[in-house]
């Protein structure tokens, strides 16, 4: 006997959709993930009200965003950002520092994570990155080679992988 609908008319059989056996069709490529996470870091850099805009995004091995940060003044010190007589660089918390601290406040283990940054880390941030256990640094742009030499030497000594993000087609 044929199946019927609630009103007694014959029910049409639904065609079963064929399963796509290609499991990679919905997966993002390596370059797509880099673009995505660097875009997140770039988005966060827009939040800063300081002259040097830098963003950071920390990602675990499962491609999950752990923490993000941007350059900002320490709490209670915002007046230094606008004071022309002060050296703002002494008061600004870097994007990498903010991302690492925010993750550690919530007890997230950063061991073997990757950090995406819009500007190559300074030597102070390199120390934090190494001590936190982050194993890969992917950066969009770099300052002059002489300004990043110490950070590069520390990363190499600590076996932290560093590479510049280069979008497809560039």
UniProtKB/TrEMBL annotation:
Keywords recorded for this protein, A-Z: Hydrolase, Metal-binding, Nucleotide biosynthesis, Zinc
Region (Disordered): 1-26
Gene Ontology molecular functions: dCMP deaminase activity; zinc ion binding
Main EC class the enzyme belongs to: hydrolase
GO cellular component term, pick one: cytoplasm
UniProt domain CMP/dCMP-type deaminase: residue ranges: 32-170
PROSITE patterns named in the record: CYT_DCMP_DEAMINASES_1 (PS00903), CYT_DCMP_DEAMINASES_2 (PS51747)
Keyword Membrane: no
Basic residues bias: start-end ranges: 10-20
SUPFAM superfamilies: Cytidine deaminase-like (SSF53927)
Domain of life: Eukaryota
InterPro entries noted in UniProt: APOBEC/CMP_deaminase_Zn-bd, CMP_dCMP_dom, Cytidine_deaminase-like, dCMP_deaminase, dCMP_deaminase-rel
Stored Gene3D superfamilies: Cytidine Deaminase, domain 2 (3.40.140.10)
Family note: Belongs to the cytidine and deoxycytidylate deaminase family.
Protein name in UniProt: dCMP deaminase
Highest classification ranks of the organism: Eukaryota, Metazoa, Ecdysozoa, Arthropoda, Hexapoda
